[in-house]
Amino acid sequence: MRSRRKLRKSGHTLRAATKDLTAALAILVPTGMAYAQSTTPPEAPVTQETAPPGEASVLSDMVVNASAIPSIASEAVGGAGFAKPLLETPRAVSLINEDTLNLLGINAIEDIVRAVPGTYTTTRYGLQGGINVRGIPADVYWRGMKRITAQGHYRTDLSSLSSMEIVKGAAPPIFGLGRIGGYVNQQPRSGGKAQTGSYLTDLAGFVQGVVGSWDKLEATTGVGGPVDVAGKQGGFYTYGLVENSGSWVRQVNVRQRLLQSALSLNNIGMFRVESGFQAQNSQTSGGYMNRVTQSLLDNGQYVRGSPLVNLDAGAGANLDGLGDGFIGQRELHANSPVAGAVSAANRPLDQRFAWPKCTGANAQFAGPGGYCLPGHFPVQPGIPDSLFAYLEANPNKDPTGQVRAARSLGAGVTPVSGTLPVGFFLDPTTTGFADVDYRRNGSYERLQNANVGLAWFDLVYDTDPDFTMKIQTFTDNLDTFKDSYLPYGEKQGIHRFEEKFTVTRRLPEKWMPGWVDVNTLTSINYRRTAGYIRNSNGDYDYRQDVLRGDPQYGDGQHYPNTKFANQLNDPSWRTGAPAEGERRSVYDEFGAGLMFDVTLFKNTSLTFGGRWDGSTARDIEYAHNNQQKPGLANSCNLPGNALAAPTSAQIAASEQQLLVLTSGRCDYGPSWDDGKTWSISLSQQLPYGFRPYFTIADASVILDASNNIVANTVVTAPGGHIGRSKLSEGGIKGNWFGGKLFASVAMYRQLRSDVSNPADPTAGADSSATKTRGLELQIDGNPTRKFHIGMYFVGQHQKYVFNTNSQLQLNGRQLGFQDILNADGSVLYPAEAFLYGGRVQLVMPAEIGALYLDRVGEPRYQTGINMDYKLGYGFAFHVDGQRFSSFYLDRTKLVKLPQSFTMNTGITFDRNRLHLKLSGFNVLDQRYFRAGTGDTNVNLVSVMPGAAVQLQAKLDY
User: What is the 3-state secondary structure (H, E, C) of 895-943?
Assistant: First the structure.
């Protein structure tokens, strides 16, 4: 072919190329690097002939574009492993480019669903650092390199990106071990050349400011230009962001600082160097609306009440009692003692209940095994003995005596321990119902501080499109701590290093018949992920009454009786809460893959390939004080194993940590596992613009948790720490009217295929054992030069592959407690008030779980529409809307979140160097909700923001 003749003419034979490659590798090999592939679409090749002396590339900048969004059917994506136009890619792929990011105002993870079907993302204490694709947490790549999981520990800022490619389903074989839902490949706005591939000789940049509702205040700037390093021409770009904002939830503020810088240099031997870094500090808070009931979601009715017993009784004094401002671990046991020995199922604010059976008059509500169906637990009137005894000793908390009188009706629901500690109860003098303030935050994590840093260094040879090489080095780091009143406290460090080596070569024409074209891609990789976490346990999310007014601490704010010590604010044994867990995890991945892209008769495309991956994993646990006698489940070094399990009285009275609560270290692994991956895709260009395709794949997945730590149960699992997933997807894509109309429809089925009954030791992995079936439709059109419209629809159903046992958190009414009524029939003491001071554990029996295999927590049906119109004179208008069907909050289907429709608008003005945009979000001020991660908690939900406006002003120079 012409390009190969040109390569030979210039003296760059394959032998010479190999020589230069060897020299480049010599720089990297001493660090023990190996390599893997990036499916990042290749940039335009830069050669000595096309790069004028003294000029350099200017890296991309997001430009405010008031014109309609152009069709994206011809833009290159890497969803099939090879960089191909979106129309020819045999997978469901969505691309958000610079125009879309800007015009829709997409700058946070929760905004992506406005443009991309199948990306509805649940929350983790109100934060959405990660992204779900097809209902499952997705991998995130940075220029084709795998990032660590954000976990909801920091706010992912999307304004620093030039584009995002979202691929549905398991990644192609070349990517290595991943997850089954899909992946996102992010391109930094400062990470490549200008979209036109042109060069500039002068500096160019911008400044931008954003103000808006809830004290939104953000400033960004960027500058790029030419560089000359030792006679090598190149370009640089630097981008910075500073934010100091409030948020919809009054207690939650956002502080961000981000710096991103990139450098490109041409003609480094045969290579082009592309390098850069990004550093970010994110400080924010998180939380849920607590005490969720169906009445709260439908009518805004909130269950009032403050905790009955003041657990904060340490040294010192404050206006709220005799405590020191925080509830320490010893105070817990002193003021809310358990009966008998302390255990995982028997703690002062954490109790296990047995799943009841329905007999006699209740037999009509019995399911398999005689167990009661959720929502039909037998009502058990009365009050527990511990509540009765406390009110007898403190009659001022029950002035009328009506609560104590209920003791004659029974003892209510009894936990497995036999006694419900007094810390669980709400104060009868404060209970009732009231209209909620949705902007309050009951389950509050005070500070989430994260330092995030990544860096990349690539050597790229793509002068000849028929023979390319890329050597990539990447590191990603997250160091974070979370100080929570709940009292969960955590310090965490996750670090990843990766290298990839990729070669593509198109087979010579002389080797093939004229009707066949074959492109090949070969890759090897090495990836190492190390994690450390030290934490305190306990999320007592329901103690805080969000409507409580307090002259000292403020309305809706936590106060000493709802603020707990943790290992960050007081790790001492005497007054605080020492760390209860510490672990380190490390796993290495290395593998090789080969793919082929075959074109037959110009219109038929066959893409196939395979990969092998090997991995070693190790998990080290340092068991600390965890309030109970250690067992083999949490340590294999038990110096205090001969001692009896402690009681609450022993813990409360001890001035020094009890020997029985310390247990040393346990080392799991290293263990070895390997897996194979393969995929086959076939597509055919038909008359009238139609292109059907079909893909089947069997992919290996790493079974790490959401924090990229491989748990000891996974390290020691009989099946190993590498799982398997399967994907079957078929669809049709089409492009008509000269690119003015693009449409795609896909039907898919994906599942974890390596799990089976009766138990799954990898249940804690983020690649959940689910099976998903769905239909996805997307249309993108430009009827005129001024008008753009895009629409999508998704319908999908998820089920667990097998009946996994779930540990549920229900409220008092759902467990069977009964309201205590006034003489007039009004509620004096709600059934929920018996348990909101603590946390409940309830294990769903396997017989009942078999009836509840649906994976819930997100809408089954999603619909979206986007419209943009260029008005003229520099003005343009945008409107978009999304409708989500109703869905259940938890696996037992006791609480349903209502359907929702939200609409956003924007008007832009662009004239010369000035760009203005006024945006309105949720302009109809609709109240809607999102579930948290998982589907086992019926008591928490995220309330999404109401109507908001935002003004953005940008000036180029």
Answer: CEECCEEEEEEEEEEEECCEEEEEEEECCCCCCCEECECCCCECCCEEE
